């Protein structure tokens, strides 16, 4: 595996490649990331990964400084997955001057759910993803469904800017107890780790109620938030949305069998976890 940090070296390595499959990451790689690499391999060749902790998507006071950085272990894992090039730019490589041009997702999609609780987050994500795409010029790029809203925003961005990159969504990789793998799980204490699967269990309860014909969405959301709060979580939201645009379903949508997803974000101790489940 070639490890490159400058955009020029990356372009040299990828010159003439027309079927590149790309997986952008912020490092601290776990099985979830590696499953994205394997999916990428099925859709293109060569597979290119990036590791870059993108300051633009962290608000002041968030965990940019303490975000786990495990470069050497990450390199070993990517070598084993047969990744062809790892692009690991420094901040100076990526932002040699202040990034004044930014990609702003539409208000409706960018400011709801995660966007409401993390203002500026999706502008930071969209900007770095656009810039990484410009560097790597992939034919396909793989994003995990765990970051459901991010996947939708990137997909819409690629479509609206007519980017020549197909966006592929990968199923969420879970531990045996159901917890979605995330780099931020490493912040959890042993007790918190034992409690953490309750987030996915709560999503499953909501899905079960809906499948049983329960249609009062507001009540289901409130009950789910209350049950998390009773277990010492601090929920930001539990929200049932249409899969197609992440808008709240209208009354007619339920009758017509509109495809839905339930999304949640909640703090356990100092760690904020997100998850979702397609219903
Ligand atoms: O999902 C992530 O790890 C990040 O948001 C991404 C897509 C690599 C952009 O920094």
Automatic annotation (TrEMBL):
This is Pantothenate synthetase. It is an enzyme of class 6 (ligase). The reaction proceeds by a bi uni uni bi ping pong mechanism. (R)-pantoate binds at residues 57, 150. The gene is panC. One of its GO terms (biological process) is pantothenate biosynthetic process. Pathway: Cofactor biosynthesis; (R)-pantothenate biosynthesis; (R)-pantothenate from (R)-pantoate and beta-alanine: step 1/1. GO terms for cellular component: cytosol. Catalyzes the condensation of pantoate with beta-alanine in an ATP-dependent reaction via a pantoyl-adenylate intermediate.
């Amino acid at each position: 595996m070639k490890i490159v940090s400058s955009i020029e070296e990356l372009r040299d390595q990828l010159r003439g490649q027309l079927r590149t499959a790309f997986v952008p990451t912020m490092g601290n790689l776990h099985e979830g990331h590696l499953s994205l690499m394997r999916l990428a391999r099925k859709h293109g060749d060569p597979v290119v990964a990036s590791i870059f902790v993108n300051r633009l998507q962290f608000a002041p006071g968030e965990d940019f400084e303490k975000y786990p950085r495990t470069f050497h272990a990450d390199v070993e894992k990517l070598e084993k997955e047969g990744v062809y090039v790892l692009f690991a730019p420094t901040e100076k490589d990526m932002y040699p001057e202040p990034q004044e041009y930014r990609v702003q997702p539409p208000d409706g999609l960018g400011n709801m759910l995660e966007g409401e609780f993390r203002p500026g987050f999706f502008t930071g994500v969209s900007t770095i993803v656009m810039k990484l795409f410009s560097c790597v010029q992939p034919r396909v790029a793989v994003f995990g469904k765990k970051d459901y809203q991010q996947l939708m925003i990137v997909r819409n961005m690629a479509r609206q800017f007519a980017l020549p990159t197909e966006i592929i969504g990968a199923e969420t990789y879970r531990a045996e107890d159901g917890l979605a793998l995330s780099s931020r799980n490493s912040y959890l204490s042993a007790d918190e780790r034992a409690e953490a699967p309750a987030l996915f269990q709560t999503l499953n309860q909501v899905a079960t109620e809906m499948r049983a014909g329960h249609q009062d969405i507001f009540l289901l959301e409130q009950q789910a938030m209350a049950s998390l709060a009773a277990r010492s979580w601090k929920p930001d939201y539990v929200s049932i949305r249409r899969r197609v645009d992440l808008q709240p379903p209208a009354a007619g949508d339920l009758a017509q069998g509109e495809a839905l997803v339930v999304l949640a974000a909640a703090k356990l101790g100092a760690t904020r976890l997100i998850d979702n489940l397609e219903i």
